TrEMBL record:
All copies of domain Aspartate/ornithine carbamoyltransferase carbamoyl-P binding, residue ranges: 7-153
Transferase is among the record's keywords: yes
Family of this protein: Belongs to the aspartate/ornithine carbamoyltransferase superfamily. OTCase family.
Any one GO cellular component localisation term in the record: mitochondrion
Class of the enzyme per the UniProt entry, highest EC level: transferase
Matching InterPro entries: Asp/Orn_carbamoyltranf_P-bd, Asp/Orn_carbamoylTrfase, Asp/Orn_carbamoylTrfase_sf, Asp_carbamoyltransf_Asp/Orn-bd, Orn/put_carbamltrans
Protein name: ornithine carbamoyltransferase
Annotated organism of origin: Wickerhamomyces mucosus
Length: 322
């Protein structure tokens, strides 16, 4: 018999359109089961990972990702174990290789929040269980799934929507760009001069948009990018791990705060999104707390995204047809 190939969730780039759509739709159906308190369905799911454990190996802070992945583990009857950077030997007293071998021998999956993308790749290489990328410097796939779930439940039809990103060229937009282009959404990305998307992401975006008849543009003009946007999105200007260059980055982002200047030129049905945590320099209170803001449902949808991912990659061992 051959050893089965382990499917890891590293980035939205690694999925097919169909697989990505499955993750989104599954999140929406799990949300229904949970919101309607459908007991028989909940109990049936509760047996799926009963008696198992799920490790969260996090070397950075987290509110949403931690709560949603611990919640997802509980939904399937598994015990989550949060292993922060000060809790385990990793990085101080033990190598990533040894740590991965040991942890993966005892748990059903590892949610990992790391610094470099290379760390996620190394984890995936040496782990005997699925690795779920819970944010690295280059990608944040769980966020992208929750974001498309949120857009789908708000707009219904995804085809032809325009999403505008005004912000950094970071992990969140890298996956959100590919997720949008896979889903029929056109994208405009406005970054400050001198801050450009990763060429490796651009390459995937070119392929995916060509395959799907979607389009995207890269610009340094936030107002032009906002024209007719259905969804305006941003994120922190200073990601975790970049604190040392905060001053310099904040200077580069002057003029990038999303405000009514942007919503005024957006489509009439515009919505605002932000993965959170949010700082005032990224968006005015007026927009952030407006009726058009989806930020809190978006955060809540992280739970259903994590449940969908756990079901697909762990319960069904990467078989998307189940
Ligand atoms: N959006 C997000 O990933 O938030 P946390 O850093 O709080 O997990
Ligand atoms: N880009 C941000 C996202 C936080 C959820 C960071 O990496 O810190």
């Amino acid at each position: 018999s051959t050893t089965p190939v382990i499917r890891h969730l590293i980035s939205i780039s690694d999925l097919t359109n169909k697989e990505f759509e499955t993750l989104v739709n599954k999140a929406i159906s799990f949300k229904k089961i949970i919101k309607t308190e459908n007991k028989p369905e909940i109990l049936a799911n509760h047996e799926k990972l009963l008696g198992k454990t799920v490790a969260l190996v996090f070397s950075k802070r987290s509110t949403r990702t931690r709560i949603s992945s611990e919640g997802a583990a509980s939904f399937f009857g598994a015990q989550p174990m949060f292993l922060g950077k000060d809790d385990i030997q990793l990085g101080v007293n033990e190598s990533l290789y040894d740590t991965t071998k040991v942890i993966s021998s005892m748990v059903s999956t590892i949610f990992a929040r790391v610094n470099s993308h290379k760390e996620i790749q190394d984890l995936a290489k040496h782990s005997s269980v699925p690795i779920i990328n819970s944010l690295c410097d280059t990608y944040h796939p769980l966020q992208a799934i929750a974001d498309i779930v949120t857009i789908k439940e708000t707009f219904g039809e995804l085809k032809g929507l325009k999403l505008t990103w005004i912000g950094d060229a970071n992990n969140v937009i890298n996956d959100l760009l590919i997720a949008s282009l896979r889903s029929g959404i056109n994208v405009s990305v406005a970054t400050p001069n001198g801050i450009e998307l990763d060429p490796k992401v651009i390459k995937v975006a070119d392929e995916v948009s060509k395959d799907n008849g979607t389009s995207y543009e890269l610009t340094h003009d936030p107002i032009a990018a906002s024209q007719n946007a259905n969804i305006l999105v941003t994120d922190t200007f200073v990601s975790m791990g970049q604190e040392f260059e905060a001053q310099q980055k904040l200077k580069q982002f002057q003029g990038f705060q999303i405000s009514t200047e942007h919503t005024a030129v957006a489509a009439q049905n515009w919505k605002f999104m932000h993965c959170l945590p949010r700082h005032k320099e990224e968006v005015t209170d007026e927009v952030f707390y407006s009726e058009n803001s989806l930020v809190f449902p978006e955060a809540e949808n992280r739970l259903y995204a994590a449940i969908s991912v756990l079901d697909t990659f762990v319960v069904n061992k990467g078989d998307f047809s189940k």
